[in-house]
Amino acid sequence: MKIALDAMGGDNAPDALVEGGLIASNQCKGEVEVVFVGDLERIEEVIKRNQQLADKARYSIVHASQVVEMDESPAIAIKKKPDASIFVAQKLQKEGKVDAVVSAGSTGAAMASALLTLGRLKGVHRPAIGTFVPHEDDFTFLIDVGANVDSKPRNLVEFAIMGSIFTSKIMGKPRPKVALLSIGEEKKKGNELTLQVHAELSQSKLNFIGNVEGNDILNSEANVIVCDGFVGNILLKFAENLYEVLREQIKRNVRGSKIAMMGAFLMTRVFKIIKKTWDYEEYGGVPLLGINGVVIISHGRSTAKAISNAILEAREMVDKKINEIIQQELENQRGMEIVSENA
Amino acid sequence: MKIALDAMGGDNAPDALVEGGLIASNQCKGEVEVVFVGDLERIEEVIKRNQQLADKARYSIVHASQVVEMDESPAIAIKKKPDASIFVAQKLQKEGKVDAVVSAGSTGAAMASALLTLGRLKGVHRPAIGTFVPHEDDFTFLIDVGANVDSKPRNLVEFAIMGSIFTSKIMGKPRPKVALLSIGEEKKKGNELTLQVHAELSQSKLNFIGNVEGNDILNSEANVIVCDGFVGNILLKFAENLYEVLREQIKRNVRGSKIAMMGAFLMTRVFKIIKKTWDYEEYGGVPLLGINGVVIISHGRSTAKAISNAILEAREMVDKKINEIIQQELENQRGMEIVSENA
């Protein structure tokens, strides 16, 4: 299997990307060839610095002369930077030269290029991006956080189906519990969208457990929580920022006092646990679901370990033919729906 | 001036409520009479326990035999519990026997009863609840978090106007900066609602600074951030819960280790600062804006100090004739709008 890695995307590119790619290939005992896409010279530099890893890894390099910056508009970048690493990587998948793409660069660019080159999966009206909301010893998969705005009920039902399949097949949650993000637990609490989605999910074959509220997200028994991308995107960015703001505030106040610095030192172990739970740098990648291909998006600050995890995740999505299952499930659900409509 | 206090609402009722009311009346040097509404005997008990405060306070008691529980449906409660403290308090305002109402009970019940008894302010299509999003040395006023779902552009513009007036007149922010919560800073980023609101706010007389994203909420220079209540409610509940979950996780992990316990002890001062910034118990009340009266809602966990602050806030809203200003501003804005429509 070949997995293309956008070596130029993300804050730690290309170093963490290339190192992560080599680690992954080693872990797969050569079963996976990592195709580094990006600046040839810079990639080779990093490989030299990780020669030991490289010796046991299967990899190749495809040169790409451009990079899409994090703050760049995907729409404009696609026109102006045809040779950007993420676009080249997606084209490789479109041409069947690789089986999946992993990127830690601009999510918008990854989504836009995937839609343009690979297109949507048959039966999917809108692709979505899910993310892991950490619990202390577990997680909930929140979908969509990829800013599908003004979603229709049909879209959220598809997000629920895709999220369930991903969490069961890849994250090993049998019969995932699916919840709907709303402003009250009663089925009549919500907005026009959620009221209708609640009704549709209740009739679906999914393991739907009802509505959850904002204060349930971190404690809910739900394995999958569905929402419109407008809400999901705002929540995700807010959560990451709140964590950082708290951390910075603690650091700043600790620096001001020798006693507090000693205290913080004695609490090192505790802070490590907190960081491990909440810091997005520690996580692997999240899938772009509903695309006619496999695309994993890693956090911009991903470490080599996180990138390696993302590649293993991509391999599993290919191995387990996630997209075939999604298409099949969508068919079943449609059948279901017609029955219930006629009923 | 007379301010009715729902003495039975909230986790610390009636103790913290009554004590807070007495503190407020003392601070106002008898200029404010606090009308405690609730169970006569229980209120008198608490007053006895705070005799020193009571001696210098101006207060009276109106008995109410029922209480709306936090988890009770406001719609049902209004029918089944006509003598609930919050409803009795609102009726007192409707009849002109008090000038404002403060409650730490069910927000839904306070809103529902306010709409039923006091009604909307002339020119306001939908009332809204704003809340303070803490910054380290400041705050942003987020409106609506009161679950006005499926808001129309007109509603958000009204939220912006009401929020601006509240933050300038009561919170002392001259010419408040108003931002719109969306998923991108560019004016073309957002959903149908925010795109239209952005256009309307740009044409308004408000000090509109554009869109902010989820990760800007805690760092934005905006004094007022407007959003639909569905998003605002989910964000607010998520934020409160995330803070609590983090605090609990730290506590639990500290307990496990003597060294960490020593560390936490040495960090006491730092944790106090964090708590002061983030803990909602530390805040006063938030206004129900757009109601034909003055209603301040305090957090269910409010301390006596927080309740006292809420009463002083209510007094200011009455003194400064906030509702008259809102009506006037809405008139101005309408004029504005017609001009721009004809232009």
Question: Could you explain how this protein is built, in words?
Answer:
The structure is a homodimer of 343-residue chains. The first copy, chain A, has 343 residues and is an alpha/beta fold. The first copy, chain A, has 2 domains: 1-124 and 290-320, Isopropylmalate Dehydrogenase; 125-283, Isopropylmalate Dehydrogenase. Chain A has 13 helices and 11 strands. An 11-stranded mixed beta sheet of chain A has the order 3-2-1-4-11-10-5-6-9-7-8, with helices on both faces. In chain A, helix 1 (15-27) links the parallel strand 1 (2-6) and strand 2 (33-38). The longest helix of chain A has 27 residues, at 229-255. Chain A is globular and about 60 Å long. Residues 338-343 of chain A have low confidence and may be disordered. Chains A and B meet through helix 9, helix 10 and helix 11 of A and helix 9, helix 10 and helix 11 of B.
What's this entry about, in short?
Chain A is an alpha/beta fold and 343 residues long. Chain A has two domains: 1-124 and 290-320, Isopropylmalate Dehydrogenase, CATH 3.40.718.10; 125-283, Isopropylmalate Dehydrogenase (3-Layer(aba) Sandwich), CATH 3.40.718.
Name its key features.
Isopropylmalate Dehydrogenase; alpha/beta; 11 strands; disordered C terminus; globular; 343 residues; 13 helices; 2 domains; homodimer
Distance linking N and C termini of chain A:
46 Å
Percent in strands of chain A: 15-25%
Radius of gyration of chain A: 21 Å
Main beta sheet of chain A: strand number and arrangement? 11 strands, mixed
Tertiary shape of chain A? globular
Strand order of the largest sheet of chain A: 3-2-1-4-11-10-5-6-9-7-8
Please provide the ordered H/E string of secondary-structure elements of chain A. Answer: EHEHHEHHEHEEHEHEEHHHEEHH
CATH class category label of the largest domain in chain A = Alpha Beta
Helicity range of the residues of chain A? 40-55%
The CATH homologous superfamily of the largest domain in chain A is named Isopropylmalate Dehydrogenase
From the structure provided, what is the oligomeric state, counting identical versus distinct chains? homodimer
Number of helices of chain A: 13
CATH architecture of the largest domain in chain A: 3-Layer(aba) Sandwich
Structural class of chain A: alpha/beta
| CATH fold assignment of the largest domain in chain A | Isopropylmalate Dehydrogenase
Summed over residues and divided by their number, the pLDDT of chain A gives a mean of 90
Uncertain runs of chain A are 338-343
